[in-house]
C-alpha cells in the first residue's frame, strides 16, 4: 500500500516561490497571530549550548512573569530528568542567559530569584549618560534677578488738589535680568559594541544578498557556436519535457550553452548536468538552467603546452661505442675502452709496479 500524501503540505510546497532546494530543509513559514515567543538566532544556533539547554531556555522564555522555573518545576513538565535540566541551567548560567540572585525580604527571609535575559550581550553595552536639565546649568546670576532700586519719593501733593494716579515707570536697562545662557551640549559616550559571543553561520533574512553571477559567455563567439547552442536548447524538451523553453528563454541562454560547447563539453553530458534531479514542482525551468549553466561551468580544456607537461619524459639511451683495444661494442656516453680492457690494463699496471718494487 502506497504512503498517503498530505494534500495540505503538497499545496503549501507548491505555493513557495522559486525553485525548491534539492537537499536540506524546506521552510513553510506561516505567520503567528497568538501564543508565540520571539527567540533570537544567537540562542537557537548557539555553538556552545546543547540542544537540551536551548530547549530549556526557549521554554523559560515562553513562560509568563512569576512562574516557578526551579529544577523540580521544570522536570514536572519536561521529559528530561532533573540531572539533565540542572546541567542545562548551568550552561545557560555560564553564558549569561540565566542568573540566580539572593535577595532578603523586609521580613528577614532570604529568597532566590531566577532572572532570565533573552539577550545577555545587550547588557554589556554602556548606556548613554542622562543630560542635565537646562535650568540646572544656568548661571547663578541668571537664577536670582537683580532687584531694582527704590524709586525717588514723589513730592507731597497739596491738600486741595487730588493726587493723580501714579504711572508705572519703565524699568531701567541695568535692572533687566540677563537672559540665561544656552546650556552646553550634553556629552555622550560613544558606546562600543562588545565582541559577539559567536559568529552566525546562517545570515539573517534581512542581510543584503550578493548580486547573482552573470551568465557565462564564450571567449570567441562564432555563428557555429550560436547555431549549436540554439539547437541544443530547442531540442531539450524531447529529452526532458519539463524543460520546455520559450523563444526568449532560448535567446537568453544561448551564450551560456555556447560557453560550455567552447570548453569541449559533449551535448549528452551537458544534458545530464542541466536536467538531472530537478525540483518538484519545477515552476521556472529557464531560471534553473541559468543557475546550473553558471555554477556548473566546466574548466577550459588544457592547451598543447599543458598536455606536453603531462607527457611521460623520454628515456635516455646510451649509444654504442667501439673499444680501442679489442674492437668490441659497448655502451658508453664517450668513446674509449670497454670494462674488461680497462681492468686488464689496471692489472698490468699493478704487476709492473710490483716488479719494479722487487728489483
Describe the structure.
This protein has 359 residues and is mainly alpha-helical. Among the domains are: 34-120, Orthogonal Bundle (Arc Repressor Mutant, subunit A), CATH 1.10.10; 223-295, no CATH class; 320-358, no CATH class. Helices cover 35% and strands 6% of the residues. It is built from 13 helices and 4 strands. The chain has helices at residues 7-14, 41-44, 51-62, 71-75, 82-94, 140-143, 223-234, 236-239, 247-262, 267-275, 285-295, 304-310, 339-358; strands spanning 98-104, 110-116, 320-322, 329-331. The strands form 2 sheets. Strands 1-2 form a two-stranded antiparallel sheet. Helix 3 (51-62) packs across helix 5 (82-94). The longest helix is centred in the C-terminal third of the chain and has 20 residues, at 339-358. The chain is flat, with a radius of gyration of 47 Å. Residues 136-159 have low confidence and may be disordered.
Features:
Arc Repressor Mutant, subunit A, mainly alpha, 35% helix, two-stranded antiparallel ribbon, 13 helices, single chain
Number of DSSP helical runs = 13
CATH superfamily heading of the domain at 34-120: Winged helix-like DNA-binding domain superfamily/Winged helix DNA-binding domain
Written as H for each helix and E for each strand, in order along the chain, the element string is HHHHHEEHHHHHHHEEH
Quote the average pLDDT: 79
Radius of gyration (CA) equals 47 Å
Beta-sheet strand percentage?
5-15%
Question: Which stretches are poorly predicted, pLDDT < 50 over at least 5 residues?
Answer: 136-159
Question: Architecture of the domain at 34-120, according to CATH?
Answer: Orthogonal Bundle
Describe the largest sheet.
2 strands, antiparallel
Helix content percent band: 25-40%
Distance between the termini: 114 Å
Q: Please name the CATH topology of the domain at 34-120.
A: Arc Repressor Mutant, subunit A
Strands, count: 4
CATH top level class name of the domain at 34-120: Mainly Alpha
**Spatial strand sequence of the major β-sheet:** 1-2
Coarse shape: flat
Structural class: mainly alpha
Amino acid at each position: 500500500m502506497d504512503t498517503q500524501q498530505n494534500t495540505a503540505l503538497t499545496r503549501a510546497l507548491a505555493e513557495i516561490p522559486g525553485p525548491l532546494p534539492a537537499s536540506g530543509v524546506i521552510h513553510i513559514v506561516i505567520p503567528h497571530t497568538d501564543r508565540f515567543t520571539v527567540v533570537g538566532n544567537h540562542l537557537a544556533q548557539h555553538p556552545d549550548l546543547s540542544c537540551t539547554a536551548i530547549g530549556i531556555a526557549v521554554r523559560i522564555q515562553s513562560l509568563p512573569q512569576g512562574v516557578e522555573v526551579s529544577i523540580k518545576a521544570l522536570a514536572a513538565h519536561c521529559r528530561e530528568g532533573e540531572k539533565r535540566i540542572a546541567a542545562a541551567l548551568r550552561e545557560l548560567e555560564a553564558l549569561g542567559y540565566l542568573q540566580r540572585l539572593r535577595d532578603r525580604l523586609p521580613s528577614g527571609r532570604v529568597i532566590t530569584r531566577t532572572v532570565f535575559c533573552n539577550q545577555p550581550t545587550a547588557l554589556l553595552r554602556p548606556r548613554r549618560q542622562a543630560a542635565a536639565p537646562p535650568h540646572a546649568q544656568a548661571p547663578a546670576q541668571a537664577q536670582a534677578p537683580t532687584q531694582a532700586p527704590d524709586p525717588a519719593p514723589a513730592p507731597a501733593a497739596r491738600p486741595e488738589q487730588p493726587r493723580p494716579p501714579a504711572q508705572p515707570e519703565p524699568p531701567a536697562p541695568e535692572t533687566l535680568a540677563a537672559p540665561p545662557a544656552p546650556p552646553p551640549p550634553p556629552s555622550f559616550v560613544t558606546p562600543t559594541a562588545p565582541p559577539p559571543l559567536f559568529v552566525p553561520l546562517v545570515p539573517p533574512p534581512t542581510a543584503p544578498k550578493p548580486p547573482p553571477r552573470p551568465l557565462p559567455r564564450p571567449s570567441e563567439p562564432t555563428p557555429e557556436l550560436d547555431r549549436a547552442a540554439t539547437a541544443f536548447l530547442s531540442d531539450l524538451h524531447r529529452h526532458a519535457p519539463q524543460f520546455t523553453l520559450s523563444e526568449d528563454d532560448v535567446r537568453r541562454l544561448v551564450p551560456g550553452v555556447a560557453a560550455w560547447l567552447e570548453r569541449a563539453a559533449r551535448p549528452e553530458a551537458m544534458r545530464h548536468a542541466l536536467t538531472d534531479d530537478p525540483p518538484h514542482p519545477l515552476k521556472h525551468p529557464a531560471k534553473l538552467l541559468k543557475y546550473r549553466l553558471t555554477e556548473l561551468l566546466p574548466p577550459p580544456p588544457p592547451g598543447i603546452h599543458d598536455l606536453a607537461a603531462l607527457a611521460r619524459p623520454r628515456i635516455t639511451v646510451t649509444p654504442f661505442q667501439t673499444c680501442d683495444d679489442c674492437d668490441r661494442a659497448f655502451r658508453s656516453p664517450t668513446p674509449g675502452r670497454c670494462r674488461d680492457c680497462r681492468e686488464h690494463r689496471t692489472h698490468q699496471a699493478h704487476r709492473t709496479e710490483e716488479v719494479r718494487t722487487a728489483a
